[in-house]
Design goal:
Blueprint (H helix, E strand, L loop, with lengths): L13 E2 L2 E2 L11 H6 L4 E3 L3 E4 L11 E4 L6 E2 L6 E4 L4
Parallel strand pairs: 3-7
Antiparallel strand pairs: 1-2, 4-5, 6-7
This protein binds zinc ion.
Length: 87
């Protein structure tokens, strides 16, 4: 099954009866690229727990082991954590 692009054709001006300006629509998101621009969260300790933030955008809590100077990515939300310094 082919995946349909969510991008509107440039000549499509109406969606479900609503006028649409294609130029005002968000670009197809590239979540991996966006999250890679977020600096790693510094944690003062050998491990942390990530739940993706509270509320509906969160995910099950996962335990993340940290290493100094090597960001570790949360497998759920992609947020990176790094140990701020070794003890
Ligand atoms: Zn996470």
């Amino acid at each position: 099954m082919a995946v349909r692009s969510m991008t509107l054709p440039a000549n499509k001006k109406y969606v479900n009866g609503h006028k649409v300006d294609p130029a005002a629509q968000p670009k197809p998101s590239n979540a991996a690229e966006l999250i890679s621009k977020v600096p790693p969260v510094e944690i003062d300790g050998p491990a942390t727990v990530c739940d993706g933030g509270r509320g509906p955008l969160g995910h099950p809590r996962v335990f993340i082991n940290l290493e100094p100077h090597r960001p570790v990515e949360c497998g759920y939300c992609g947020v990176r954590y790094v140990q701020s310094h070794s003890h």
